[in-house]
Amino acid sequence: xxxxxxxxxxxxxxxxxxxxxxxxxxxxxxxxxxxxxxxxxxxxxxxxxxxxxxxxxxxxxxxxxxxxxxxxxxxxxxxxxxxxxxxxxxxxxxxxxxxxxxxxxxxxxxxxxxxxxxxxxxxxxxxxxxxxxxxxxxxxxxxxxxxxxxxxxxxxxxxxxxxxxxxxxxxxxxxxxxxxxxxxxxxxxxxxxxxxxxxxxxxxxxxxxxxx
Length: 212
Ligand SMILES: Nc1ncnc2c1ncn2[C@@H]1O[C@H](COP(=O)(O)OP(=O)(O)O)[C@@H](O)[C@H]1O
Ligand SMILES: [Mg+2]
Prior knowledge:
Layout: E1 2-10, E2 14-23, E3 28-32, H1 39-46, E4 54-59, E5 62-63, H2 69-79, E6 80-83, H3 95-106, H4 112-117, H5 133-145, E7 151-155, H6 163-180, E8 183-187, H7 191-194, E9 199-204, E10 207-210
Parallel strand pairs: 3-8, 3-9, 6-7, 7-8
Antiparallel strand pairs: 1-2, 1-4, 4-5, 9-10
Bound molecules: adenosine-5'-diphosphate (ADP) and magnesium ion.
């Protein structure tokens, strides 16, 4: 599903080199590492948004950085979902309107079962600004999952949630992967969260090492 071979990248200094990674359908992997180690950069490279200085990334056997911009946009739209620490919801809209826009763009229906699972079915008609941080993050996750992505990339998705909300959100993403044969690649600095994943890798000393 996703394969990265011999990645290296530098900005002002070398962030990492010799990075290999393979993620299969239904597999959930976490990448940990201290702040500034290059986790977000690696996630951008894996998710089609940044061409690495060296190495290749394959999504469904296709070498993504050899593709045209149109083909990349198609992959982003059809296969990839991205969750950030700070959600990017339209703040003057209701949660429902945010979900509706996403549904229209991806030609999918709003999944009310999913909203119920995320415990936001009763608040979606409120303006997003009136929701708690945890509720807003659930809306943004509902928005991403409603696209039915095959690979979810999440950068500190639980970073601004308390432990209870964090575990709940992780659980919903795991269930989604199981049901939809999807993979999840999450960056987190939280070891307790990372332990829930099938595999954990650590970005350290410019290498990505298998951890557990
Ligand atoms: N677009 C960029 N241009 C220049 N330097 C960058 C850019 N993005 C990240 N960096 C630098 O690369 C380093 C790693 O950043 P990042 O990948 O965000 O690390 P992490 O997510 O592990 O905290 C930081 O020192 C950061 O300043
Ligand atoms: Mg980061």
